[in-house]
């Protein structure tokens, strides 16, 4: 809304002032183009098990970060607290419905494996205190297991991280009813 205030006299001078009022809203993610493919560097794509979401790394917001695109709704999904200005995020992997996103985050010399839960909108560092180099994390469809490459023995090996039996699994309702523990 624009409102023009006029008619105020100061001796022989008349002032015309224009005031612009705008609503304060948080920008949606991303603030740039909303198409999946754009002029930005988009790389390292990962597809959710149900085929609905694509996670990828991009420089759309002026810094490298992870973005999530909903193919069904054809729009980006807001991921509060996932991308930090002081860290580089890369190598995303999605659980079955995209509830969990596992990725590498580097805010110091060594990258850490982090897990973002879209239900709680909270990131969690999973590799605190891990001494070796890590790369290429991937999460199981149900969100319980994370596999990654590690260089702790001087060569690249594969390790599996079990988040535990108490983890809320990311599985469609029909699979929950038919199999209480689908993975060994």
Low-confidence stretches: 1-28
Q: What class, by secondary structure content?
A: mainly beta
Percent of residues in helices comes to: under 10%
What is the CATH level 1 assignment?
Answer: Mainly Beta
Spatial shape: globular
Strand sequence of the main sheet, in spatial order? 3-4-5-6
Main β-sheet description = 4 strands, antiparallel
Order of helices and strands: EEEEEEEEEEEEEH
The number of domains is 1
Description:
Strand 8 (100-106) and strand 9 form a beta hairpin. The strands form 4 sheets. This protein has a 4-stranded antiparallel sheet with strand order 3-4-5-6, with no helix packed on it. Strands 7-8-9-10 form a 4-stranded antiparallel sheet, with no helix packed on it. It has a single domain (26-178), classed as 6 Propeller (Neuraminidase), CATH 2.120.10.30. It is 3% helix and 43% strand. The chain is mainly β and 184 residues long.
Summarize the SSE layout with pairings.
Blueprint: E1 2-10, E2 13-20, E3 42-47, E4 53-58, E5 65-70, E6 75-77, E7 88-94, E8 100-106, E9 112-117, E10 122-125, E11 134-139, E12 145-150, E13 157-162, H1 173-178
Antiparallel strand pairs: 1-2, 3-4, 4-5, 5-6, 7-8, 8-9, 9-10, 11-12, 12-13
Short key terms for the protein model shown above:
184 residues, mainly beta, Neuraminidase, four-stranded antiparallel β-sheet, 1 helix, 13 strands, 3% helix, 43% strand, globular, disordered N terminus
Q: Brief description of this entry?
A:
With 184 residues, the chain is mainly beta. The protein is 3% helix and 43% strand.
């Amino acid at each position: 809304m624009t409102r023009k205030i006029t008619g105020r006299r100061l001796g022989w001078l008349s002032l015309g002032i224009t005031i612009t009022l705008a609503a304060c809203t948080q920008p949606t993610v991303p603030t740039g183009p909303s198409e999946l493919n754009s002029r930005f560097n988009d790389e390292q794509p990962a597809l959710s098990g149900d085929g609905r979401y694509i996670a990828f790394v991009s420089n759309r917001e002026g810094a490298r970060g992870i973005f999530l695109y909903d193919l069904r709704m054809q729009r980006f999904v807001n991921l509060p607290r996932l991308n930090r200005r002081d860290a580089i995020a890369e190598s995303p992997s999605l659980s079955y419905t995209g509830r969990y996103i596992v990725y590498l985050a580097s805010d110091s010399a060594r990258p850490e494996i982090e897990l973002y839960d879209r239900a709680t909108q909270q990131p969690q560092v999973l590799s605190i205190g891990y001494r070796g180099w890590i790369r290429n994390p991937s999460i199981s469809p149900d969100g319980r297991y994370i596999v990654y490459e590690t260089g702790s023995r001087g060569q690249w090996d594969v390790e599996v991280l079990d988040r535990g039996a108490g983890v809320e699994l990311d599985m469609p309702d029909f699979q929950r009813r038919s199999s209480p523990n689908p993975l060994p």
